[in-house]
Amino acid sequence: MVKIIKRIATLTATSLLATQLYAADYPSNTVTIIVPFGPGGSTDIVARVLAEALTNELGQPFVVDNRGGAGGAIGANAIANARPDGYTLGMGTVSTLVINPSVRGAEIGYDPLENFTHITSVAAVPNVVSVNPNLPVSNMAEFLEYARNNPGKLNFGTPGPGSLGHMMGATTMHQGEIDMMHIPYQGGGPALAGVLAGDVEVFFDNLPSSLPNIQAGELLPLAIANPERVAELPDVPTFAEVGLDMVNDPAWFGLVGPANLPDDVVEVIYNAAVKVIHSDAMRERLQSVSATPVGNTPEEFRNTIESANANTRFVIESAELTFD
Amino acid sequence: MDMINNLALGAQTAFTLENLMFCFFGVTLGTLIGVLPGIGALAAISILLPVTFHIPATAAIVMLAGVYYGAQYGGSTAAILLRLPGHPASVVACLDGYPMAQQGRAGAALFMTTIASFIGATVGMLALILFSPGIAAIGLKFGPAEYFALMVLGLIAASILSSGNALRGFGMVVLGLLMGVVGTDVNTGVNRFTFGYIELWDGISLLALAMGMFGLSEVVQSANNDDAPKVKDKITLKSMIPTKQEFRDSVFPMLRGSGIGSFLGSLPGAGASLSSFMSYAVEKKVAKDPSRFGKGAIEGLTAPESANNAGAQTSFIPTLSLGIPGDVVMALILGALIIHGITPGPQLITQQPDLFWGLMVSFIIGNIMLVILNIPMIGIWVSLLRIPYAALYPAILVFISIGVYSVNNNTFDIIMVFIFGVMGYFMSLLRWDAAPLLLGFILGPMMEEHFRRALLLARGDITVFISRPISASLLAVAALIISWAIVSYCINARKRSTHKHTNAIKSEAG
């Protein structure tokens, strides 16, 4: 028994020592970036672009590990529970670090602020509200007026209850003082089909997945959630411009690690990440998914998450949304 | 003559050495993973996707698409030979394919599925090339009420699927519907029957359920058998060639199956997995002698196989012409295009004509390659039956585990396969059919989702299901089938009772 305890003690000591050593020449081994969604989605694409750039920058392979399921909760838990040695990092998004924890509460198994080390926000993607072109409105002001004159008549489609689209819709109703019926779908694709068919009139979505149908005239964009207007749709105002500043946040994809990553490890990753995020090559590759590079400091990133959580909880409470 | 120009442009793209190679690689890989139980197109494409970021867009999608439709060819192979479906849709191939193999017609069955696959794929491809935008528009006419009505028809199909006792079949459908309830409710976000496991938020995995109930339970059952190979005789070329009768009996079923598959495949989200079940039910319904089904009826094998492959081709319609992926695999293919800066949508055909038409021509080339690839392979697959269980089944277990794990990189799903394997074993001891359960499981969540969405949109007005023409006609067909079933049951019952009655009188007189 004593022998075993001794052995455990030695092991712990060695591994502690190892952690210390790691930090000095970090990274000396393969780094895994957990993506809490399946391959092919925006988060995965951003992660893969970043992993490739970090591999070149730091000279060790950065590999992507897709752990999809439960709206990102499985992967987010895997990041939070990883060993804080810098060899397991992950992607944290507005869904996994803001909306899901606000919607699910303790059931989700992690705290978005306490259980992670926030490194930097890698990229942001604008959101958009668009309507079926048969709706007799041509801009956001007309839309709000139409909605006020027809309370409860309009339907807004979203990828599901407690999704980013649902929160955007709820916030628009709250701040715009309108009333619409929430029609949740099983994911963004079916919701897009619903609005193209005219089953629902209004659609809250990421810009990239709505854009082709907007450009084809099948969807009419009303407002963009982004700090400034987007190059693809220069005539479409931001939510802030039309007086709905609470809806104006873009979706973002950040780099995080488990809580208590050693400071020097964070510094190495942060410096490398910010350098590659601001490179021209990165800007160009992100453009393919309508994303723009961010690369803010850990404090700024953490503050974004903190205030977004507060806002989301405020909307959930004021709209009396329940999910259990 | 636009079409000829378009196809010429497509041929220019598809016939480059690079694209031909990627196409060949894709369909070959597809065939192989299709044969392996558990490892389907989803797993293979997930793994290949990151690789495609480094090759040109057209080559990438030609290859990934090849894996997808190639896997449909191979999916029924293990189902026929070993009663181990390659993926959930090929569960149907077990029903009549396996009995054929037991009757020594394994080679012929494989030959016919290849032909059926090719015909299905060709019909689907023609629909895709000629009528893409039109079909996409029809797909959009399918609102929640129409989907619900379609699912009701599907449920009736489920009750037809069962080969034995109707009441047991019904019980299995209900059990499947109940199992489909597990997971996050689409309307409210409430987690139902998840027992604190976040892994269950997305519901029970269809792949885990199918692999457990069919794959694993078959392996467990075989452990009881003696360790002798299933085929001792040498496989002759003659046993591999279908009879004229088998060909003749398959022509119309294959065409019907292609039609059903083309239609269901083109509906975003209807699930191509439905098409093979639906087509089997239709064949059983129109057959002169439905009692042959489940005992090696060739139509029961070829029609669903055509449906399956036709659906695989037409499921590209909503993906490419609307930017709406019909299922998870299509979402991956969409992702592969997006990383290359191409977002499919209504303008894809005009903005990227070489990509679109190149892909279409690659479908034609790929399907021809698949036939050439598959027919000589039949002998090799049949000889799998000569491998002793002790060597074959452990390997199968490994493949099932890899396949199920690789979808979400999650060990939870492997545990689920184990649980469903045990459950499936006891079900087969009790002669409870797993096929209706699986269809109930596929239909249940979709039915509930569309029913509630239709009611939400109609603000609770239930007449929405009969005030919309498509939904009303589908429900009318469903009502007709049910009333016909009741009427024919009554007629038969009366015949039987009069028969009994006369017999009784006779015996009294005697």
TrEMBL record, chain A:
Protein origin, superkingdom: Bacteria
Presence of keyword Manganese: no
Signal sequence interval, chain numbering: 1-23
UniProt xrefs under InterPro entries: BUG (IPR005064), Bug_dom1 (IPR042100)
Pfam families given in the database record: TctC
Keywords from the UniProt entry: Signal
Residue ranges crossing the lipid bilayer per the database entry: none
Family named by the database record: Belongs to the UPF0065 (bug) family.
PANTHER family: BLR1237 PROTEIN (PTHR42928:SF5), TRICARBOXYLATE-BINDING PROTEIN (PTHR42928)
Listed name of the protein: Tricarboxylate transport protein TctC
TrEMBL record, chain B:
Domain DUF112: start-end pairs: 20-439
Spans traversing the lipid bilayer: 20-44, 51-71, 108-131, 143-161, 167-186, 198-216, 260-282, 322-343, 355-375, 387-408, 414-444, 465-487
Keywords from the named record: Membrane, Transmembrane, Transmembrane helix
Keyword Ribosomal protein among record annotations: no
Record's keyword annotation contains Transmembrane: yes
InterPro entries: DUF112_TM (IPR002823)
Entries under PANTHER family matching the protein: TRICARBOXYLIC TRANSPORT PROTEIN (PTHR35342)
Protein name (record): Tricarboxylate transport membrane protein TctA
Natural source organism: Nitrincola lacisaponensis
